[in-house]
Every structure is written in structure tokens, then in C-alpha cells.
Amino acid sequence: MPPADHQEQVRAVMNHILKDDGSARYRFAAPVRSRLPRYLFDPDVPGKPHRFGYVHGWRVDLWVTAKCTYERGERPYMAFFREGQFAGIFTENRVQSEPMELDKWCVLHLPVAGAR
């Protein structure tokens, strides 16, 4: 499961990404078990293919209304936790072409240790 303070962790990262002063409004769904393609977490190495497979963990859907989105309303995001640790924030890919949802998500932010 994500840690008890997972919502505060996600808020802090999102406020930094959005350059928000803390006025953003957040709405969170309950954590659910999920998986993401491994390539989202692996570094890009030119000429070397990504390993196939999935990373299993917990997904927390969230919706954010910030200064930059007031006119467009809430924007959806997904935070992912594995082994009880924050693993990244993702946005939904609006153009999907791969089977098995391999391209369903785009990386918005990975912690420095997992950055690609």
C-alpha cells in the first residue's frame, strides 16, 4: 500500500510541477492494485530496446484544478507507488496504438533515483 501520507507527497510534487503556490485543489481516489509497463521506469539507452514486462504496485488516481487549469477545469493524473514508495506521476496518453495498454500512460515525473 502507499504510505499514509501519500496524498501529501503527491500534492508536494504536483505543486512543484505546476509551479503552484498551494492554491490548487486536489481530489483523490482510493489506492488500487495496478501495473505499469516496465519501460516507463527504465532509462532510455540509444540502440538498446527496453525489457518487456510490468511493474506491479498501487495506483492512485487524482484530479487537480490549479491556476493554469481553472478555465479547463480538473485535469486527471495518476500517481504510482511500489513497495510502499512513491514511484512517479503519469498522464494518460490520448493517442493509444499498442496492445495491452503499453502506451496508455506518459511519464510526467519520476523521482530522481528512478529518472530516465
Describe the overall structure.
The chain is mostly beta strands and 116 residues long. It has one domain. 11% of the residues lie in helices and 37% in strands. The chain has 1 helix and 6 strands; from the N terminus they run αββββββ. It has one helix spanning 6-18, and strands at residues 25-28, 32-37, 54-65, 75-82, 85-92, 105-109. Strands 1, 2, 3, 4, 5 and 6 form a 6-stranded antiparallel beta sheet that branches.
Give structural attributes.
single chain, 116 residues, mainly beta, 6-stranded antiparallel sheet, 6 strands, globular
Walk me through the topology.
Layout: H1 6-18, E1 25-28, E2 32-37, E3 54-65, E4 75-82, E5 85-92, E6 105-109
Mean pLDDT score: 85
Which structural class fits the helix and strand makeup? mainly beta
Helix content: 10-25%
C-alpha geometry:
globular
What is Rg?
15 Å
Q: Outline the biggest β-sheet.
A: 6 strands, antiparallel
**How many separate domains make up the residues?**
1
Terminal CA distance reads 24 Å
Strand fraction equals 35-45%
Overall number of strands: 6
Order of helices and strands: HEEEEEE
Number of helices: 1
Uncertain ranges:
none
